[in-house]
Specification:
By secondary structure, this protein is of the alpha/beta class. The chain has a single domain, classed as Ribonuclease Z/Hydroxyacylglutathione hydrolase-like (Metallo-beta-lactamase, Chain A, 4-Layer Sandwich), CATH 3.60.15.10. The chain is 22% helix and 23% strand. The longest helix has 26 residues. It is globular, with a radius of gyration of 21 Å. The structure holds zinc ion. Zinc ion binds next to loops.
Length: 288
Amino acid sequence: MCFRKFLATTLQALIAFLVLAPFLLSQTRPKPPKSVRLYVFDNGVIKGLDPAIFHFKKEELATTDMVVCSYLIVHPKGTLMWDTGAIPDADLKADGSPVTQERFTATKTLKSQLAALGYTPKNITYFALSHYHVDHIANANDFASSTWLVQQPERDAMFAEKGGAPITQRAKYIALKDSKTKILNGQDYDVFGDGTVVIKAAYGHTPGHQVVYLKLAKTGPILLAGDLYHYQEERNTDKTPTFEFDRDQSLASRAAIEAFIKKTGAQLWIEHDLAHFNQLKKAPGYYE
Ligand SMILES: [Zn+2]
């Protein structure tokens, strides 16, 4: 290539870059909102559950089916992804036809739901799991570049050399091991420093199960309860799942969270509650 041709090619590439740069930059992250937003993602359903593993008889529950969902919280200062579904995006179909794995069925990838809002896992500021169970971690590795907010006993169980955590698949979250990590030890953690997004410990279902409290300007306060309960019918009973890590701890956590929502007037959202989910606005709709 002669020098003049080289110069022309380089110049063309430079011009193309300068023309595209503002566009590409604006594509990397949407403009932050003025107040906190909550987006609800659809990650499918869980069917065929035996109510006995939750100490219920079939006729005591409206349905044994559960929904699998995850949440994106968008704050003026950054974003928090909460949970990641039961089936990895890589196993789902591009045409949106349903895919079933064990008891889980899903149609939509998590990344397509993020992309519809202008986000990719790479530009999410914070990442948190309610807990490490297999129906919450499917796409956790995608968020390894976010700052991981995790309780010390949860992380210890997730990466324990001996025994390891039950009802999970370490491979699906292994990348978090090297993430920038904020370790929590049961204290409330005010994610953005203004009291609008606060992680609260609710140990028992797993060693470091956690929930998140949101103070939304129009909707009011919401407590995203993770698996503190699985069914609405569990509230006001002492029934806990048969696979609870520490039942006494769970009952104490429930009592503390119930007292907290009574004090704050927060709505309690049970992540797996199908009837509740069906009533919710799903992304790209949002609560603010
Ligand atoms: Zn669950």
